[in-house]
Specification:
alpha/beta; Rossmann fold; 2 domains; globular; disordered N terminus
Length: about 375
Amino acid sequence: MRKLCAAALIAAASLLSLPTALADPAAGTVESVTPLPAAATLPGSVNAARLLYRTTTAGDAPVTASAAVYFPPGAAPAGGWPVIAWAHGTVGLGDDCAYSVAGPSAVERDWAYLGTWLKQGYAVVAADYAGLGAEGEHPYLNGVVEAHNVVDAVKAATRQYDSLSTDWAVVGQSQGGGAAVFVARYATEFGGPELNYRGAVGTGVPAYIEDILLPLGPGVPPVKLGAHSTAYVLYILNGLRTSYPELNIESYLTDSGRQWLDRARTSCIEPFGAELSAAGVVVGTLFSRPLLQIPDLPGVLTRTMGLPETGYDKPLFLGQGLSDTDVITPATLLFAEKLKAGGQPVTLRTYNADHSGAVNASLVDSIPFVRGLFG
């Protein structure tokens, strides 16, 4: 009986994570506009600002989130600056990690990348995602939530500034690459007639990342992973805790695991990775019982972070570094092939680069790709 009740609760919670047309009608409403701190201001941009706006988080609950807006110099073209929505990679879970507060963790890489789009004549709208830099917890890798956050940030920015066009595309890396894919699937639905979504670019896309969680448990894996990989596991567990508190994620962890889980809640990726490495943390020692004891764990994970394989109505570009060790490169390539086999409008390009290097390496292909979207 207890197992049946638990399964029913989780099934109900899973339904709450699915896209719905009943999102907060105020989504995209601007609550405030303030200057950005210097650390979060894209070099070469003008009139950069931080917006607080309404969006939704886990369970379609209404929430306030933040975003940065960057404008190119000069007068806007007729119809306004076309918009690039930037879906950033993992920065951490603490409010002080938010892009519109601290700027990117990979400063040189991201400023070079976003600066290139700025020089191409696009304004940039960079959503922090729900729970980063504003109220609530961040449901890390909850793809539908991230899609709402990005779309609503574009709504907010285009409502606030007459100099912005409602024509837009999304680009993203790593966590943001996955977010860009979810945006690509739901942008037309979530944006409605107010916005004119054109297409998406994702690099370092974490395809089938949910599969690596299935074997986790006591002693699995038994070896020390890279600092970022260990941090990602703890961030994902926090994301599940935020999206599905009834799962009681803490009950699957040792005392040490619970301490690191709480530490992850307020940490930024670079210092947290260094802290985990210095402490010699092994993921398998964090668990007191297998995660697979969670009822319908594969279904929960797939509905939360599993990248959609159908339903794309605009072109999608995927760029992947062949020496990427942060995401599983063969899995991302498999995802692209599944999309192609299903007749989805996907373009795949690969680069002799690692996870970070593929971001700017992809510009040789993604710039003309995006230009074609707006042509």
